[in-house]
Amino acid sequence: MHSFLRTSATCTAAIAALQMTAAPASAQALGDHQYTSAAVEAGSRLYVSECALCHGPQGARVDGIDLRRGQFRGPRSDEDLRRVITAGVGDSRMPAFDFSSAELDGIIAYIRAGFDPGGVAVRIGDAERGRAVFAGAGDCASCHRVNGIGPRAAPDLSDVGAVRTPGALQRSLLDPYNSVIPINRPVMAVTQDGEIVRGRRLNEDTYTVQVMDSDGRLRSLVKEELVDFEISRSPTHEPTRLSSDEVADVIGYLLSLRGL
Amino acid sequence: MKIIRRAVLTVTALSGFIAHGSLEAQVSYERILGAANEPGNWLTYNGTYSSQRYSRLDQVTSANVDDLELKWMLPNQVFGAWQSNPIVVDGIMYVTQRPNDVMAVDARTGRVFWVYRHTNAANALVCCGANNRGIAILDDKVFMGTLDANLVALDATNGKPLWKVAVGDVNLAYSITMAPLVVKDKVLVGVGGGEFGIRGYVAAYDADTGEEAWRFYTIPGPGEPGHDTWEGDDWEHGGAPVWITGSFDPDLNLTYWGVGNPGPDWNAGQRPGDNLYSDAVVALDADTGELVWHFQFTPNDGYDYDAVQVPVLADMQWEGAQRQLMFWANRNGYFYVLDRATGEFLSGEPYVRVNWSSGLDANGRPIPTPQPDGMPTWPGNQGGTNWYPPSFSPRTGLFYFAAWDDYATIYRPEESEYQPGRAFLGGGFDVLAPVPGAPTIGIGRTNPINNWTNEVGHGQVIAMDPLTMEPRWSYDQFDVSDSGMLTTASDLLFTGGREGYFQAFDARNGQLLWKAALGGQIVMAPVTYEVEGQQYISVISGNTMVTFGLPD
After folding, report:
1. A1 touching chain B per CB within 8 A
2. Domain identity same for A61 and A153
3. pLDDT value, residue A84
4. Which of A167, A179, A183 is the closest to B449 by Cβ?
5. pLDDT digits (tens, 9 = 90+) for B284-328
6. What is the spatial distance between Cα A145 and Cα A159, in angstroms, rounded to a whole number?
7. 3-class DSSP state for residue B489?
8. Do A164 and A242 have their domain in common?
9. Which residue numbers of B are catalytic?
10. What is the average pLDDT across B181-186?
11. In chain A, which residues have their Cβ closer than 8 Å to the Cβ of B450?
């Protein structure tokens, strides 16, 4: 398997990525975007002493809320949670807590880590702001399609919030090399007529491969009829250069996409 | 008038056929012994007692295989992997479908004579699907094991039950998925339930009455040799099921059985000792069930490396002398040659990437190299191969089987407590994925998209030369394969895989000669038979049995 240069005009991010030597994102980059393990650990202790009495040790004692699984009545983003914890919920349903900023980080980190004191917590930002970043600074919409709008070069994200975890979404943004699901890898094929077919793999078996080509057409290719056939192991985009806040917002937006 | 006369003629012709068929359908033990000499029929699960899945039929050859055409299809209405192996006797095919139906089918046309349906107890429990792999036949009776651990005898002519016995206790999750093996006047069958803390056995029943003749426990009880390979009461729930049909050597009067994994599956530390006779082959006296020898492939297994492969028997020159051999590509990634008279280990080499062991010692015992916590083990949980029936061609001297290469699993052993009728697994596992959270290989295929790709592992047809212990040739498949093998006297090898291709290879060199895109996963071996001078080749793909032959 070799990586190859992709010259599709539809996806500038892909071109940028493939012209670089493929290199896994560094661990530090990942660390910038998530709560620290110390925060998760501190949050676990604070949760037990301050929150578990009402919410229960597994976070599911209050009707309609399952903190561990990320189910809330109203709040979605980390900021929402912060607001609810510090302001409380009316009619004495939940008291307002006077936590320090570090303590709030800890509680939210513990929730986002799925109540696993050793887990990884993903910040979830504001979905509306995330939508703007997705279309703008993030340059996501130049390859990905959402709810019928946008190109088909990269996987359609209309239901990505239902099929991917926050951790997987964060990893896709920060460490694309280790995130592309293998079946989605870019394909380059040369037919006996000399036609170069580039696209995204949809399915493959011993004798054939099914591709969405760069013009958005479904193509089924018979391998023994091809002059060349390569699967790229390179990521389709670079590790994001978005700020930590913007990444959290984009994740919030992606999680809001639940399909039809 | 004309119409009525034609109907009368048809009825006359039909009754003539039935009378003829029922006479011929007497499958005596002598016929089964000589099954290789009547290649027009497929009389046992693996074709003959030696389990070579080699047929002397040679009408279809490398020169005309391209002309193969569809003769008939028989779809079933039951969803799920169709793992059944048909038996064919004098133009009548007996095949089972999920969970425990038997059908008698016209082998020329696919039309069904009768269906017998066994209703299983509601609490019947199996680990890996409501599978049944077929029937056995003797005289005018057909025998089937059931998911709720009964053995049923049917009248082969009309499908009506003659007797039924409980082989195991369904409440303790005993089950039967294998096709029974008839030897002389007895029906031999083993029990499944290795994921539920059973104590496995093979048992023999009188073919006429269903009365139990003998029972061999695959875990020795107190006072029996091998009991000291278990500590405390671990032996009571130690698994060691037998869920694949064995083989028989009439000269040695030995039956051979592959034994499954010890329980709990993934926590070897919870059951210290070799855990005999889990992951072993046992040679049992055909008349008494007495253990004559055993060979254990994987002592104290923590990887689910069931030795439930088909014991393949062949006589060959081995280091200058004619020997009675047994070939065995094991789930643990090693290919073995044993002396089947004595159980002596003759040779063993890995055929896929292996890292749970660094090799075999002079007695064939693996040198264990357990991987650190969280690190991958090759081969993975489903093994380098599994129950998929292999084939040996005495013409090429090669042993053919489906292998899974570059496939690994990360195990998570945990302490678990035995509870009757409940899963007893000792933790869990993850298949090694190319990127975190990517789809990985599971049991069977439920999606036409191969979303795990060959980055998780890929299939191989391996033609192993037992004399050199190296593949003579191998053929890569993009997906893994659970398909068995069939070879013929015209040096064709038929097999398939999860991708739904049915393929014919030149058995000598691995050249692909023909393929048909049937679409559904092929999870059993093809069979071949002959009716009225026409050779047929049948294979199950997805929910459909498909039968090919040359143009009339």
Report:
1. no
2. no
3. 92
4. A183
5. 999 999 999 999 999 999 999 999 999 999 999 999 999 999 999
6. 11
7. coil
8. yes
9. 304
10. 98
11. 183, 203-205
Give the number of A-B residue pairs with CB atoms closer than 8 Å. Answer: 50
Q: Does residue A200 belong to the interface with chain B, where contact is any CB pair within 8 Å?
A: no
CATH number at residue A129: 1.10.760.10
3 state DSSP class of B426 = coil
Backbone angles phi, psi at B431, to 5 degrees: -75, 135
Assign B377 a pLDDT band (cuts: 50, 70, 90). very high
Q: Is A6 within a domain?
A: no
State ipTM.
0.88
Per-residue CA distances from B497 to A87, B458, B500, B524 (Å): 61, 11, 6, 9
Cα torsion B511, B513, B519, B521 to 10°: value is -50
How far is residue A235 from each of residues A28, A200, B254, B289, measured CA to CA in Å?
19, 12, 58, 60
CB-based contact A165 B437, cutoff 8 Å: yes
Q: Are A180 and B449 inside 8 Å of each other by CB?
A: no
**Per-residue pLDDT, A68:** 80
Can you say how many angstroms the Cα of residue B153 is from the centroid of all Cα atoms in its chain?
21
SS3 call for B448: coil
Q: In what order do the strands lie in the sheet with B291-296?
A: B247-249, B254-258, B280-285, B291-296
The tally of domains found in chain A comes to: 3
B473 pLDDT tier (thresholds 50, 70, 90): very high
Q: What is the CATH number of the domain that holds A213?
A: 2.30.30.100
Residues A81 and A142 in one domain: no
Measure CB to CB from residue B477 to each of A171, A202, A206 and give the nearest one. Answer: A206
Question: Which of A112, A132, A154 is the last residue before a domain boundary?
Answer: A112
Over residues B26-40, mean pLDDT? 96
pLDDT band per the 50, 70, 90 thresholds, residue A179: confident
Chain B positions touching A182 (Cβ under 8 A) are: 434-435, 438, 451-453, 455-456
Sheet (strand A208-213) strand order = A218-222, A208-213, A196-204, A186-191, A226-231
Contact B450 A178 (CB under 8 A): no
**Same domain assignment for residues A155 and A246:** yes
- The letter for the amino acid at B103 is M
* A165 and A201 co-located in one domain: no
Pairing label, strands B54-55, B486-488: parallel
For residue B343 the two structure tokens come to 């159980």
A244 and A175 in one domain?
Answer: yes
**pLDDT value, residue A74:** 78
Which of B432, B440, B447, B451 is the best mutation test for A, with the most CBs of A within 10 A? B451
Residues of B in contact with A183 (CB under 8 A): 439, 449-453
- Identify the domain boundary among A87, A112, A137: A112
Burial B254-279 (b: 16+ CB within 10 A, else e): bbbbbbbbbbbbbbbebbebbbbbbb
- Give contacts of B406 with chain A, Cβ < 8 Å: none
Are A181 and B451 an interchain contact pair (Cβ–Cβ within 8 Å)? yes
Q: What is the mean pLDDT of residues B192-202?
A: 97
**Residues A167 and A150 reside in one and the same domain:** yes
Q: Is A236 on the interface with B (CB under 8 A)?
A: no
Range of the domain at A219: 186-231
Q: Would A5 be classed as within a structural domain?
A: no
**Same domain as A177, residue A221:** no
Tell me how close the Cα of A102 comes to any Cα of chain B, in angstroms: 30
Asked if A122 contacts A166 with a C-beta cutoff of 8 angstroms, the reply is: yes
CA-CA distance, A33 to A31, in Å (whole number)? 5
B479 touches chain A (CB under 8 A): yes
Which residue in B435, B497, B501 is closest to A181 by CB distance?
B435
